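[Discussion] Sanity-checking designs against the backbone

I'm trying to build intuition for which residues belong where. Below is a structure token string of 338 positions. I'd appreciate it if someone posts a full sequence so I can compare it with mine line by line.
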């Protein structure tokens, strides 16, 4: 008898595709039959800006409750939405091979960031993206937006509508009553990984080099979380999870998240981090903190041989300490100061 596994997911298109990939992978790796169950989260219900919600993990709590209640056995999270603290009774048992961690500009008329006209309106709900955009282009008008990926893409003037959606106007922006405006922005910034998972990477007009826009810690990676008791042993699910885990992804993400944890910053903080594990075991790690208004930024880089997750964590912590020593706590709202 195969082991029956219920995979919990949010109802958004992005969550459904991410969960679908993990469910298929688990089914291919061991003798399990997989069923997906939908879980509504606070982040799906609330329509205000993510930045104003405060706290971390708005997309995560409901999935964790469903795991702990036994309504599902596996939860798939976007790693960058996962708070850095441990969840009692739960374990991130696998981090599958990461997608492209870069942020993407999706601009009208194929424009790049450098080519956007003076004062162009660029949408993002992320303080990290807003701060780094302002640091490079102080003239831009950064517009706070939220909603799912398609809602955001439709705000780009002249954007190609997706099947079934209202066409984007080419001239006057229109805000449907109660709905999100359409075609009122010159560009939006989104994670390349989310676009790729939804088959919308065609909308990207620039994939940002990390020295222009450093991604969020964990961006592009997934966390597969289970009840701790299900993570170990020889049951088919535990075996499948071990096979799904990618050590290079895990080491990089552990280091990136250690930066965030040491700065006592959440996913809404203007903190970027990007780690890459080379074949020889050397982890390169890059991190920055940017003033929300873009008037200052700090960036540090390090490299070190890592043989364990603990080594990766130590590298991230040390890099965060360098940022704190250099005054990161005065530059941006972080929990940690020095
Ligand atoms: N906070 C929302 C969120 N969480 C994960 C992704 C994209 C996929 C990923 O980074 O793995 C997104 C959308 C975005 O930032 O564009």
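Best answer:
Here's mine. Compare freely.
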């Amino acid at each position: 008898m195969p082991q029956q596994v219920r995979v919990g997911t949010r109802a958004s298109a992005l969550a459904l595709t991410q969960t679908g990939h993990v469910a298929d992978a688990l089914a291919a790796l061991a003798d399990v039959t997989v069923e997906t169950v939908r879980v509504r989260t606070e982040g799906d219900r609330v329509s205000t800006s993510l930045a104003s919600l405060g706290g971390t993990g708005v997309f995560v709590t409901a999935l964790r409750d469903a795991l702990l209640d036994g309504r599902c056995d596996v939860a798939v999270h976007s790693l960058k939405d996962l708070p850095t603290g441990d969840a009692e009774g739960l374990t991130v048992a696998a981090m599958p091979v990461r997608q492209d961690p870069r942020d993407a500009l999706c601009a009208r008329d194929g424009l790049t960031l450098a080519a956007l006209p003076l004062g162009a309106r660029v949408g993002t709900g992320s303080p990290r993206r807003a701060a780094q955009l302002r640091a490079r282009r102080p003239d831009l008008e950064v517009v706070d937006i939220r909603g799912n990926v398609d809602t955001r893409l439709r705000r780009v003037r002249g954007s190609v509508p997706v099947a079934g959606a209202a066409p984007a106007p080419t001239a006057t922006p229109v805000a449907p009553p109660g709905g999100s405006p359409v075609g009122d922005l010159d560009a939006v910034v989104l994670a390349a990984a989310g676009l790729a998972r939804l088959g919308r990477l065609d909308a990207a007009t620039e994939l940002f080099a990390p020295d222009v826009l450093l991604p969020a810690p964990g961006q592009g990676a997934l966390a597969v979380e289970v009840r701790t008791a299900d993570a170990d042993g020889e049951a088919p699910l535990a075996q499948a999870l071990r096979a799904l885990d990618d050590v290079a992804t895990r080491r990089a993400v552990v280091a990136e998240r250690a930066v965030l944890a040491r700065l006592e910053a959440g996913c809404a903080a203007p903190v970027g981090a990007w780690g890459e594990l080379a074949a020889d075991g050397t982890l390169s790690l890059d991190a920055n903190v940017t003033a929300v208004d873009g008037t200052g930024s700090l960036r540090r880089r390090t490299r070190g041989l890592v043989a364990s997750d603990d080594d990766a964590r130590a590298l991230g912590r040390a890099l965060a300490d360098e940022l704190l020593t250099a005054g990161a706590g005065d530059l941006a709202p972080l929990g940690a100061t020095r």
